[in-house]
Amino acid sequence: MSEHTEIAVHGEYQEHHEHHYTPTSHFLVVFAFLIVMLIATVAAAFVDLQKIIPIPGMNIIVMLAIAISKATAVVLVFMEVRKGTRLIWLWAGAGFFWFLMMLGILFDYFTRTGVTPV
Amino acid sequence: MSVPAVHGEHPHSDDPHLLFAHHFIERKQQDETYLVGMWAFLVTEIMFFGALFIAYMVYRSVWPGEFGDFSRAHLSTFLGLINTFILLFSSLTMAMCVQSAQRKLYGRMQMFMVATFLCACGFLVVKTIEYSRKYNENLIPGPLFQYSEGHGAASTEEASAAPEKSEHSGAEVASAESHSEGRKFSLPAVKGRGDKHHRHAEIFFSLYFIMTGVHGIHVVIGMIIMVIILVMYCRESPLVMDFMPIEMFGLYWHFVDIVWIFLYPALYLIKPDLGKFHF
């Protein structure tokens, strides 16, 4: 009888106690991805990518794309936003959305004439 | 003997995992609130660093060639790569630390937190090496700033003749002016103070020091918090036996890593020179 109680207690304890955690393998895969992207970004820096794909600022586009992909991987997996609630997604998204807006404001500089810094 | 209720009467009722503050309806809500609080702070950090990045982008878009030259001449791609690798690895150890706390494997949590702390130390060591080099090359913006072409050549007769020239001397050297636009990196010219190129260099290094310096301060703050958490863990303070504070700190640390992920290509990888890819 007491054994039953103990098992029942243990079962209930576990039921309320489990906190889902990300398995180690997920972290290792993301880490490998980050290292590969790091090597890619360093390698791409030494190559003039505009000669391969003739878009002005191709190097910057590729660098940005790699950096954004790395940041996304860190945010989704390491920061566990992937399994976050909608409210977490809203705040995480708000921050980066703000940065996009700020970048949009930056484009004003390209339309200015006759104003050069320093 | 009846089965005791899990909440309150449970033998482990002092276990923080089962308790939550009175103004929440359930534990899950409290957890979410802590995370939202941390994310609110991270959003302010995004605004802070975002503004710095945009200032940098504006100046770089106006003087792309010069910024590339400054970066190639004086920023070590290799040291920056070491730092990036260290921080990425520290992000991994931090994620493992949070996972260990969630699984209540406190020994593992402690081990991973120490590993993260050591990575942060390594990052600061490399940073110190970089900054001390800048100091020796007179590249710290301010009254001692002296930009000259060529790696390590910090002074010539011209520079030593007037070491206390104020940074606002508007007299532009005519010959220097004609060189500043179509000049190649390899020319061993030395610019005097007040020259346009010199001012642009000072702006580049101001941005460099502010961005990497404030990022370094964030790393130091992270290290302090890690020490506090480890000390509280040794004292078995209930505050850190719960996984949520560790998870919140984890968010902060990953953010610090993300900032560096953007800093490295922005500052160090503009126009790197393979011949300079060395210590």
What do you see in this structure?
The complex is a heterodimer of chains A (118) and B (279). By secondary structure, chain A is mostly helical. Chain A has one domain (23-111). In chain A, 71% of the residues lie in helices and 0% in strands. The longest helix of chain A has 22 residues, at 24-45. The model of chain A is unreliable at 2-17 (pLDDT under 50). In chain B, helix 1 (27-62) crosses helix 2, helix 1 runs parallel beside helix 9 and helix 3 runs antiparallel to helix 9. With 279 residues, chain B is mainly alpha-helical. Chain B has one domain (24-157, 188-276): Cytochrome c oxidase, subunit III, four-helix bundle (Four Helix Bundle (Hemerythrin (Met), subunit A)). The chains are: A mainly alpha (118), B mainly alpha (279). At the A-B interface, helix 1, helix 2, helix 4 and helix 5 of A face helix 1, helix 3, helix 7 and helix 9 of B.
